[in-house]
Amino acid sequence: MRIIFDLFIIFFKIGLFTFGGGYAMLPILRKDIVDKKHWCEDDEIIDFYSLSQVLPGIIAINVAGLVGYKIKGKIGVLTSVAGMITPSIIVILLIASVMTNIMHNEYVIHALTGVKVATIILILETIVSLWKKSVNNAFGLGVFMASLAFLTAFSVSPVILIVVSSAFGFMVRKMEKKK
Amino acid sequence: MTLYFLLFFEFAKIGLFSIGGGMAAIPFLFELVDKYGWFTSPELIDMIAISTSTPGPIGVNMATFAGYRAAGIWGGVFATLSTAVPSVIIVMLVSKVLHSPEKRELFYNLLYGVRAAVIALIFYTGAELASLSIIDIKTLILALVLAFAVFKYKRHPILYIVAAAIIGVVFKL
Q: What is the share, in percent, of chain A residues with pLDDT greater than 70?
């Protein structure tokens, strides 16, 4: 019961303090799930992101569900997804019904500018922490550079990027095995 | 009743087909404008803008918003749950395979090359955000101060987010 409660609260916090979904939630997710609770490893979180990116559905919900399953099976999926979507429902319904002008409020605009800058720095810190674990050999570095080049030059879709890098990685693993 | 059935059908569809992020849902939402008239195109553009700058995943926010416009508060709740349904089912199916010992090796090999690609994706997203948000001397100074604090003290991310919001208001960023 305690775990279910914690899981809901963690994803509720993520839903409430993440602006922009997807990757913006990664810093809080890592802090709470990996550093504090030790429920997952960094590698697993990255793998959950990879899968979420190519599976149908909203990325943030998929990641929440995959983490939830790891911790508490099907109940975990329902709990983490419920935690993730509850803040959105509350905040958006408030804005849509009674606080219709809040997004034009001067203070809100200033606060959001600050929050966006914080999100960028937190993402940067996350990349630095994950770098050693995920880009740990020449192959990884090659994939990173190539991915970045394709993203910047051709705005290639993330789905295609993941499918292609998966195929490359798979071949490399097979070749390593044959040796 | 029919309205709720339509909401479920449309938002479950959006949840199922928006592969690769919230923005993928936008064309589906524009389709709803012509099909049902729950909201107009200018209203939808406004809803998308609000959904990107409020807490929570953009796709989820847009579902709540659109559902509210179509059928009030319960419409908002119902549309949001409908968008999450496909994810929940798919995640349960995939997780079962993912955590089975005999498939472990296969998944490891399939995801081997993807980790570095995901780091590149995160980097690219961060760089795009930076080019939109670090726009003047004030935001640049905030970025530098935050970078120093984040890398030196490693406190909880929420602390930095709240601090940055307060700094934003105080210094009129």
A: 99
Residue B139 DSSP label: H
In terms of CA atoms, which chain B residue is nearest residue A148? B120
| Other CB atoms within 10 Å distance of the CB of residue B172 | 11
Do you know the residue count of chain A?
179
A161 and A73, same structural domain? no
CB A153 within 8 A of CB B120: no
User: Would you call B56 helix, strand, or coil by DSSP?
Assistant: strand
Q: Does A129 touch chain B if contact means CB atoms closer than 8 Å?
A: no
Looking at the complex, does the CB of residue A118 fall below 8 Å from at least one CB of chain B?
A: yes
Nearest to A18 by CA among A151, A102, A98, A126: A126
Nearest to B76 by CA among A65, A61, A91: A91
Q: How confident is the model at residue B20 (pLDDT cuts 50, 70, 90)?
A: low
pLDDT tens-place string over residues A59-84 = 999 999 999 999 999 999 999 999 99
Comparing A20-24, B11-15, B120-124, which segment has the lowest mean pLDDT? A20-24
Minimum-distance CB partner of B116 among A128, A134, A152 = A134
Residues A103 and A159 in one domain: no
Structural domain boundaries enclosing A143: 135-179
Which positions 97-136 of B are in contact with A (Cβ < 8 Å)? 98-99, 107-126, 129-130, 132-134
